[in-house]
Write the structure tokens for this entry.
Amino acid sequence: MTQDPGDAGGELAGQVIAMLRAAGQTVAAAESLTGGLVAAALTSVPGASEAVRGGVVSYATDLKATLLGVPQAMLDTHGAVYPGVASAMANGVRQRLGATFGVATTGVAGPDPADGQPVGTVHIAVSAHDDTVVRTLALDGNRERIRSLTVERSLALLLGRLREDTRLSPGRHPVITALRQERNGPLPTPELTFGTGTVEGNGSASGRSAAMVLLRHLLGDVLRRLRLRQGRTLREVSASARVSLGYLSEVERGQKEASSELLSAICSALGIPLSQVFREVADNFALAELQNEPVLDAPREPKLPAGGEVTIGSVRTASFSTDDLTSGPAGEFVHEVTDMVPV
């Protein structure tokens, strides 16, 4: 017997509230197609008042900009049913309501298409202080089922983020802190490895040059991962950021340096703060220095041959593959990208 999505949503809400209360954290919801159902599921749990800050039902497109800070240019260009909109909604509600986490939903519940998107197209997002994760769903069923499944998937995404936060606490990557604590005296000269080549870093001009090469590759890798988290193509982001496709491709591959103007444009197109990019780059650079091991395993574009998995100490990075487009109940397809999770 298949479990009713409403029952699954209730169980997930209970787990979310329990974890939030235990950690002294809070959540806020920004909803469009679900019309407050996510907030209703969370507040139906006893003790939710300790963890739920509130919610915003931004059903009208203009309210997504005025109440949640979604860039008007993004709404004008792509409409409300867009991964970047979900990301900006989650960020906006978290910041405006003063919550630890923000969860957002936007999509087409039917019965008719909207914003040029077919019925069942849904984007959900969860925002924390240091990152935002977006998932794109293609759901089957009537209007009620699509809305119910969206609630369930949103709570599941939030719960997964809470569990990741628990594993990583304290700090974004405790392996960095642990490695630093193990060091006695000055750090040894790091051997920085990426791709098929190896360069040794030191205080010389060549060492500084090698470090800059690594930094350029790490920046491109982070930008690529953030883009793929949202399920967006290189062409879409280049058009939104108004930079040439070829130049953006070279930046993601670490072959070109990105100017501050270009980085700002890319972050605006992705709907993420520049500080998030810098944090992820800094974390990966610290791992490279401390572990003297490869840290690059750039995710592949969808529909390209699947990549492998590389283990870095106690941190695993998984590249994108066609296996990441997994089929769930009722035939929906969930776009999953795993990035920097502890083994």
Summary: The radius of gyration is 21 Å. The chain has two domains: 5-168, 174-315.
